[in-house]
Amino acid sequence: MSSRLLSAKVHRTAASAIRWATRPGGSWFSSTNPSTLLVKRGRAFHLSDKPVKSDSELYNEAKRSVRSKQKGVFFGTSAATYLSRSSSRSLSTTAAAVASSSSLLQSSSSSGKKSLRLASGERCAPHERLLVLGSGVAGCAAALTAARHGVPVTVLHAGSVKEDCNSYWAQGGVIYRNYRLKEKDGSEKLVDTPLSLVNDIRIASGYRGALQRNTPLEECHYDASLLLNDPTSSKMGQICSTAGVNWNEDAAWKLALEGPTRVRQLLLGPQDDGAGHTSTGCVVPFDRTTLPTAGPDDDNDGMGKESPEDNTVLSLCLEASHAAPRIIHHADCTGRAITESITRAAAAHPLIEFRGDSIATDLISDEDSDGMVIGAKVLDKNTNKIEAAYAVHGVVLASGGLGGIYEHSTNPGGFNALGSSVALALRLEERLNSSLPGESGITSDLEYVQFHPTSLCLPNEARFLLTEALRGEGAILRDASGRAFASDYHPSAELAPRDIVARAVFTESQKAAADGSDGHNAFLDMTHRDASWLRDRFPTIHSHLSSRDSPMDFTKEKIPVIPAAHYTCGGVTSDLSGRVHGSGGQVHRNLYVAGEAARTGLHGGNRLASTSLLEGLVFGSSVGELVAGVVSDDDAMEKREE
C-alpha cells in the first residue's frame, strides 16, 4: 500500500475511533456520570512499549483501539476510578481531596499494573490525548486541569523552550481579591466584591449601558442557571446602543466569581489557602508585605489574608480603572514568575508532555461526518517535516493573539502573537464551508485590538512595555513642557481606562509634530517617588533602561512613551466553556480555545488591566474540566471564608 493511501486510511481509522469515543446521544459534553463518560470517550487505549513513529504502527494502534472498544475490553489508566473518587470534591480543597496523579496511577485496581507502568514513564497510544497548542498560562491551565482528571495531554509550542510564550512577558500582575479592605461605615462589607470587578470590566470595555445584574453574588462556579444572555447566540453578549461595543457580562461574572479560586488552586500555596503545592498547580513567589500590626482592628490595610506563620500577606497593588487594590504581583515580571512556575509544574506531571519547535499548520477534521476536529498537522522546525498529530480528546487553541503583526507592538519578536490560532480556525471553517465563501463566524471582533498607552518610544528601537502598575503607583503623564495632561481627557487622569489614556498620549505626541518640533511630547514621570523603592519594585524596567548603549534612569528623568499594539480582545468565537462556535452558532466538536486567542466577549473593545493572566487561568481550567467530563455544581468552588 502506498504511503499516501496508508495515510488516508490512518486518517479515516482515527476519525472512526474518535467518533465512537465521543458519540453519546448527540451531545458528548452532557451531564453523564463522569466515570461513565471517561469509558464512553475511549479512556482505555492500548499501552505500547515504544513511542509510535511510523504510519504503519500508528494505523495498527488505531485498529487495536477500535477493536478493544468493540469487544468491551478497556485497557489503560485508572482514570475512571480517579475521576469517580475526585469529581465531587471541592476545587478549592483539591490538595486535601486529590492525591497526585502519579500516586493515583499506581493505586491498586484492575488496571493497576498498566497504570504503574504509565506512571513510571511508559507512553499511552498517541491518539489518547488532548492536544494543546500553546504553552502559556491558558494552555498550561487547560493541561493541568485535564491531567488532574486523568486525561493525557501533549502541549505543542513553537519555541525551543516551553517558557517561550506571550504570558512570560506580562509585567503588571494578576487580579486576585482584596479580602481585608472594608467599607469605612463600620460594617464588615468588603470594598472589593465580584460585582465591583464586573463593573470595572464593563467600564474599561467601553460598554456604556447598565449592568444586567446589579445584585451581588459571592464566589462560586458560574453555571448555566446564572447566565444572563443566550449562550447559543453568535454574539454571546449585548451591543451597546450608544458606543456600539459588544460586551458579554456573563464572561465578566465568570471571571469575577471563579477567579480567586482558580488563583488559589493553580498559583498559591498553603500559606495563602492554596493548593498549588500539589500536582494541581504551582506556587508562584508573589511579593509579600508585613502588616504594621496584626491586631483585630487591622482591617483596612488593603492587603490579602494574613499568614499565621510570618505575619505577612500578599502584596496587592492598584492599577488603572480598578476600584480597589486587588493585583498580586512579582515585582514587574509577574508573567515570567507565573510562566516559569506553571510550565515547570505541567512538565513534571506524569500525564503531560511538551513538544518544542512544533508549529501547527492546519487542523485535521473528520469531513465525512460533521467536521469534528481530530488533530492537527504539525511542522517540526528541526526536521522541516509535517506530521499528523491525532487527539481523541480534541485540540485547544491557546497560542495567543495577533498584536505582533503590527509595526509598533509591545509583543516580543518570534512566532508569538502572530494570530496562529485565528488562522487555524479560519482555515478550518473555510474548508468546511467552502460553499459559503466569506461567511465565517468562527472569529469575532478582530478589530478589537488594544493599544497599551505607555510603551518606550525611542528612535530605531523596538517598543518596550512600561507596565500599567507604574501609573497605579503614581506615575504622571506630562508633555515636553512638564504639564500633566491626563486630567484633560478623563477625571481619573492616569488611572482612566487604557483606551482613553492611549488616545490622550497619542494626541499629545502629535502636537509636537504639528508645531514643527523635532522633540517628543509625551512622557511618563516617576521622579517624585523614592529611587531605591522604584528600582526594587520595577527591576525589569530599570534593567532594560540602564542596559542601553545610552542608559536612562527612570528615577531621575522622564521617559518618552507612545501607544503600541498590545492585546487582542477579539479572536476565535467561544462560549464560556471554551467550545469554539462557527457560522450560525454551530459548535465545532472537539475544538476548544482559551486565553488571548479566544473571543468570549469578556473585554469588549478594551481590556481592563491585569485581566489577561486571570482570563487564561479561568477559561483554560474550564476547557480542561469540559474535556475531562467534569460537571461542577454551584458549590464545586468553595466560597471564601471571610
What are the SSEs and their pairings?
Blueprint: H1 3-21, H2 34-40, H3 55-70, H4 79-86, H5 94-97, H6 101-105, H7 112-119, E1 130-133, H8 137-148, E2 153-156, E3 174-175, H9 194-205, E4 238-239, E5 246-247, H10 249-266, E6 288-290, E7 312-314, E8 316-317, E9 327-328, H11 334-348, E10 352-355, E11 358-366, E12 372-380, E13 385-390, E14 395-397, H12 420-432, E15 443-444, E16 449-456, E17 464-465, H13 468-472, E18 476-478, H14 498-514, E19 523-525, H15 531-537, H16 539-546, E20 559-568, E21 571-573, E22 579-581, E23 587-593, E24 598-599, H17 612-628
Could you list some keywords that capture this structure?
single chain, 642 residues, alpha+beta, six-stranded mixed beta sheet, 15% strand, disordered N terminus, disordered C terminus
Helix percentage: 25-40%
Strand content of the residues, in percent? Answer: 15-25%
Mean pLDDT: 78
Number of strands: 24
Q: Which class of secondary structure composition applies to the elements?
A: alpha+beta
What is Rg?
25 Å
Distance between the termini: 68 Å
In spatial order, strands of the major sheet run 10-2-1-14-23-22
Please report the number of helical segments.
17
Largest sheet: 6 strands, mixed
How would you describe the shape? globular
Which residues sit in consecutive blocks of at least 5 with pLDDT less than 50?
A: 1-53, 62-122, 294-303, 632-642
